[in-house]
Amino acid sequence: MSIAFLAFIAALLYLAAAGLQLVSALQHNGSVSRSLIVIAIFALGCHAFLTWHNIFDHDGVDFGFFRIFSLIFLGINAACLLALTRRPLQNLLIILFPLSAVAVLISTLGPDTGALEHRVPLGVAAHIGSSVVAYSILTLAAIQAALLAAQDAQLKRRQMGGLLSVLPPLQLMESMLFELIWVGFVALTLSIGTGVVFMQDIFAQHLVHKTVLSIAAWILFAVLLGGRYWLGWRSQTAVRLTVTGSTVLMLAFLGSKLVLELVLERS
């Protein structure tokens, strides 16, 4: 089986799983079907194999923009499926899986934009791994925040249909949001910490924007969690700071890689 064909299979599996969850949501079914889980696991397995092949199955390690883009979606999907064992996050799959299908196809069929790294030290690998976990969890949090904002707006307009009929209660949605933020904040702290310890110069010219934006995102999430604990901040403030922090964090990594590799054509 060719790698390109496997990418199409993974994309189709993701789209099929998203379609199943969409139908389930429209039918106001609050449970997760076994068929969806099976299809999602197969899609995730194909995605994992393709990600490994695209990043590591070379003479070196390819951390190009499209490869990392796919890796982050792999992390997001894995985190979401694991979270389903405790929390009803299944409606996020309607958004995540189509985007993941695109990420798999582009990373497999798209151009190589990054230079091969022939050796990745263990400390740098820990930094990259914690960064991917942080980006994945906090992206989930941003999507959860967007759903929470839409749900809150419908409640204020007293519209009882639409999102209100398929999403968990507002209080549970808010609790799930802060759980995601806490996990993502810990991973982001590890990412910044390992970067300081193991990267040669995190304020070098090609890294300074990533470092400054990552620290800015860390401060935003720290303020949010502190405000939640001491001041009891609720949904509206949480939504604004979560979306802002996640956007800053994505600009820190994917934004900088996009400019360097695709616009300036530098690795």
Describe this structure as you would to a colleague.
- With 267 residues, this protein is mostly helical.
- 75% of the residues lie in helices and 1% in strands.
- The radius of gyration is 19 Å and the shape is flat.
Give a short synopsis of this structure.
The protein is an all-alpha fold and 267 residues long.
What features would you highlight for this structure?
single chain; about 270 residues; mainly alpha; two-stranded antiparallel sheet; 8 helices
List the helices and strands and how they pair.
Layout: H1 3-26, H2 34-56, E1 61-62, H3 65-83, H4 93-109, E2 116-117, H5 122-156, H6 170-198, H7 208-231, H8 235-263
Strand order of the largest sheet: 1-2
* Overall residue-averaged pLDDT value: 84
Low-pLDDT runs of 5+ residues are: none
End-to-end span in angstroms?
Answer: 31 Å
Instruction: Label the structural class.
Output: mainly alpha
**Can you give the helix content as a percent range?**
over 70%
> What Rg do the Cα atoms give?
19 Å
Oligomer: single chain
- Per DSSP E runs of 2 or more residues, the count of β-strands stands at 2
The SSE string, one letter per element, is: HHEHHEHHHH
Sketch the major β-sheet: 2 strands, antiparallel
Q: What's the helix count?
A: 8
Percent strand equals: under 5%
- Globular, elongated, flat, extended or rod-shaped: what is the shape? flat
